[in-house]
Design brief:
The chain has helices at 45-54, 57-67, 89-103; strands at residues 3-9, 14-20, 26-33, 39-44, 85-86. By secondary structure, it is α+β, with helices and mostly antiparallel strands. A five-stranded antiparallel beta sheet has the order 4-3-2-1-5. Strand 2 and strand 3 form a beta hairpin. The two termini are 26 Å apart.
Length: 107
């Protein structure tokens, strides 16, 4: 079962939002800068895997410049991070749509 949650990275003033699969791996990730609420990341594991399997390094580089880099590894311990909280699927979907629109939808 998927889990949606947020944490706050104070050093960078970033809100990090994740959709994690039942094994705790990031499926989608949104990062929003705190001071101006500007999205800086909206990356998807499905898209990254597709590029890895069907494109070249240049395509992956373009994707990462446009949408950022998806967290790797299980998201264990997120509950212990600053301002961590579960969020609803609907809230994540809203943030995802806003971030993808802001970063461009041409992946």
């Amino acid at each position: 079962m998927a889990t949606w949650f947020r944490t706050y990275y104070e050093d960078e003033d970033l809100w990090l939002y994740f959709e994690a699969d039942d094994e705790g791996w990031a499926v989608r990730q949104v990062e929003v800068r705190g001071r101006d609420s500007r999205p800086v990341t909206a990356a998807s594991l499905e898209e990254v895997l597709h590029l890895r399997d069907h494109a070249d390094l240049a395509a992956m580089g373009r994707y990462e410049r446009q949408y950022g880099v998806l967290a790797e590894g299980p998201m264990d311990g997120w509950q212990d991070q600053p301002q961590a909280a579960e969020i609803s699927a609907e809230e994540f979907e809203r943030l995802w749509a806003e971030a993808r629109q802001a970063l461009g939808n041409s992946a």
